[in-house]
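wait is this the right file?? whatever heres the structure
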């Protein structure tokens, strides 16, 4: 399985605030495996495991307030 994601949100109130939020999950691989082993006594030995690449997840945000002093005057 390959997983990645990107979300960007911008919140704006005109002449007051601009707020941006960005989250980025870079692509990585994940695998899950199952096994069944039968030994010489005909006993069943189940097993499972998983492995995954390094996960790179970044979040950033920015806030910009409007300078009201200049807008009033």
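ok assuming it is, sequence goes like this
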């Amino acid at each position: 399985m390959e997983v990645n994601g990107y979300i960007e949100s911008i919140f704006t109130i005109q002449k007051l605030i601009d707020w941006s939020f960005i989250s980025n999950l870079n692509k990585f691989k994940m695998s899950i495996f199952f096994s069944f082993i039968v030994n010489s006594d005909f006993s069943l030995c189940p097993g499972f495991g998983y492995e995954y690449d390094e996960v790179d997840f970044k979040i950033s945000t920015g806030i910009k307030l409007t300078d009201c002093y200049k807008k009033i005057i």
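The longest strand covers residues 17-38. so i think its the right one actually
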